[in-house]
Amino acid sequence: MRPFEYLTAREAPDAIAAVSEIATRADLSHENATVQFLAGGTTLLDLMKLDVMRPECIVDINPLADGDLGRMSVSEHGLRLGALVRMSDAAEHPEIKRNYPVLSQSLLLAASPQLRNMATLGGNLLQRTRCSYFRDISYEACNKRRPGSGCAAMNGFNRNHAILGGSEACIASYPGDFAQALLALDAKIEVLGPNGPRSIPFAQLHKRPESTPEVETLLAPGELIAAIEVPTGASTKRSLYLKIRDRESYEFALASAAVAMDRQDGIVRHIRIALGGVATVPWRAREAEMILTGSVLDEASAGRAADAAFTGARPRLHNAFKVALGKETLIRALLEVAKLED
C-alpha cells in the first residue's frame, strides 16, 4: 500500500472543507491525485491494497456517526436513514423489516455478517464494480481505471458482466443490492457539499458508462452523501428483493429483482421494478412496469413483463445465460409479490 495522508473530521462541514482544500493543492493536481472520504472502508481499503485506488489523502468521517449521519428515524412520511448507519443495523430495524421488507432483504443478502457490521449505507451505494479487469492492475486495458486504455472485458471472460446499460467503453456490472431496493421505493438522497446541501432522486445518482465510465455518479468533487429518504406509500409494504447467485452466502448477484407493488381488487395500480446483477447501474425496468400496470399479475403477464425488461439486452460471449436467468428471476419475484397479503 502506498503512503497517504490521514485526517479525521469531527463535523460534516469540516470534512467537506478538508476535501475541498486538499483537492486544490498544487502538489495534488497531477494525474491520479485524489482525496477520499473513509467510512466503513470495506471497498476503499481493499482497492488501495490492490493498488487500484491511490488516494493521497483520506478524510475519516466515522466521528460524524455521532450526529445525524448515524441516525435512523421513522415518521408518517417515511424513513430517513443516515449515510453512516451500518448495514446490519438498518437490516434488523423492526420498522424496516415490517413495513419496508425490500430494504431489509436486500441488506441481509449482501456481503457477510462481518462486513455488514462494518459497512455503511452510504458507502454501500458507492461501492466500486467487482469487474476482475478493474481490480487487477496487471491488465492495462480498463477504461474505468485508466480512461482511454480500452476494455479487456469486451472480448475477455465476461460471465459476470452487464447485458443492460453498457457501452463500447465499459460493460462492468454494478455489484450492489441495496441500491435496487431504493430504486424500487423511489428514494432520494441528501447530499452535502461545498455549494451547500441538495437533494437528488436516487434514480439519478449512478451514471451509465457511455464514453466516460470513470465517472460513476452524479456527485461533484467534495460532495458527501448525508442521508437517504424513503417515502412511505401503498407499495412499500408489499415489496421484496430476490437475489440469484452462485452460492447462498457472501456472493454477488448474477441476477436480482426488487419489486414494490400496490394492488386493488386484484389489479396492479402501481408497480416499480429494479434489476441488479445484469446492468451497469441499478436498472429500472420501466417497460415491464408499463405492461403490468392496470393488469392482473399472473404467470402470463409476468412473462410478458420479463420479456419486455430484457428486450434491449446485449449479451457477450460468456454472459448470454443472464438473459434467461434475469427473466426467470423477475418472473419469480413478481409472482412472489403477488402472493403477499393485501
Task: Write a structural description.
This protein has 342 residues and is α+β, with helices and mostly antiparallel strands. It has twelve helices and twelve strands. The strands form three sheets. It has a five-stranded antiparallel β-sheet. It starts with a strand and ends with a helix. The relative contact order is 0.12. Residues 28-33 have low confidence and may be disordered.
Strand order of the largest sheet: 4-5-8-6-7
Number of helices: 12
Kindly state the percentage of residues in helix.
25-40%
How much of the sequence lies in strands comes to 15-25%
Number of strands: 12
Describe the structure concisely for a colleague:
Helices cover 28% and strands 19% of the residues.
